[in-house]
Amino acid sequence: MQTETMPHSSLLPLVAEPRNPGMDLDMQWVRAVQANTSAIERRASSLPGRRSLKKDHQAAWLLRAVTCIDLTTLAGDDTVGRVQRLCAKARQPVRADLLDALGMQGLTTGAVCVYHDMIAPAVQALAGTGIPVAAVSTGFPAGLSPFHLRIAEIGESVAAGAQEIDIVISRRQVLSGNWQALYDEMKTFREACGDAHVKAILATGELGTLRNVGRASLVCMMAGADFIKTSTGKESVNATLPVSLVMIRAIRDYYQRTGYRVGYKPAGGISKAKDALVYLSLMKDELGDRWLQPDLFRFGASSLLGDIERQLEHHVTGAYSAGYRHAIG
Ligand SMILES: O=C[C@H](O)COP(=O)(O)O
């Protein structure tokens, strides 16, 4: 978690258009949030074909992906029973016979992610496992409830046992270029979370441009976000590779300039094992192995685990390579 002192707020004006484009620091920061759309889209389109994760270690990478899933249910008809079943899956995400065949044990998902009302049953079902409960908050998914209620919601979710809080930012602050207001909002959310980790959901599908995505990423990191997250899963466009590239590079720039490691959570519409491998490959290429751990990388996904388990089954019954252990580390 970042410190409470928010040492980087003085950099906030640099997110706006540079008044003095000749200044070196201005240019560096502004470059970090400018998105060269065609270059990003070219690079993103080549990602699925890349081979930075070795194919014969694919089972290991899929197991790694499992440890990075925020196993999610965010439906209006969620019940205690459904959440209990989800938690049972988080505790044992892959069938025991498959894990045995792969020589693995003790595998769990990164977290379980639910609405506020489902925190208590999730905490109970996960007791003693060390698997944290993440709660979506602040009027998720639109984030348009009265501000004091959004703050109160965070407090209630932390009191109910959520160790991670996924807040939604006010998209209008981005769309109107009101970076100070976005910073203040994020900082207030950060403070309300106390010791809980805070993930800032940008709802990138509603931010208009990649440049806005880059700037909003930077502002949220400056204001103390532990993770930046693409989407609620409820927008019409959710996690995409171009958006991910922009956000990941903002994380890299922020780390290089401040020494703070901020995590990344693509969310919404990620349901195929091969997509998970592309995201892991992107993280490895752009940020390195440190960002392949669950404290710095999560998938927000409700149905990804099922496909991963199916692919692992194929792997065990088919072309399983004993070399996978080297990759799991
Ligand atoms: O944050 C998680 C997302 O809401 C999950 O989206 P999904 O149901 O498309 O996997």
From TrEMBL:
SMART domains assigned: DeoC
Alphabetic keyword roster: Lyase, Schiff base
Reaction(s) this enzyme catalyzes, per UniProt: 2-deoxy-D-ribose 5-phosphate = D-glyceraldehyde 3-phosphate + acetaldehyde
EC number(s) recorded for this UniProt protein: 4.1.2.4
InterPro entries the record matches: Aldolase_TIM, DeoC, DeoC/FbaB/LacD_aldolase
Transmembrane segments: none
Pathway entry: Carbohydrate degradation; 2-deoxy-D-ribose 1-phosphate degradation; D-glyceraldehyde 3-phosphate and acetaldehyde from 2-deoxy-alpha-D-ribose 1-phosphate: step 2/2
Keyword Metal-binding: no
Top-level taxon of the source organism: Bacteria
Molecular function terms from GO: deoxyribose-phosphate aldolase activity
Pfam families linked to this entry: DeoC (PF01791)
NCBIfam families recorded: deoC
Family note: Belongs to the DeoC/FbaB aldolase family. DeoC type 2 subfamily.
Record protein name field: Deoxyribose-phosphate aldolase
Organism, scientific name: Sedimentitalea todarodis
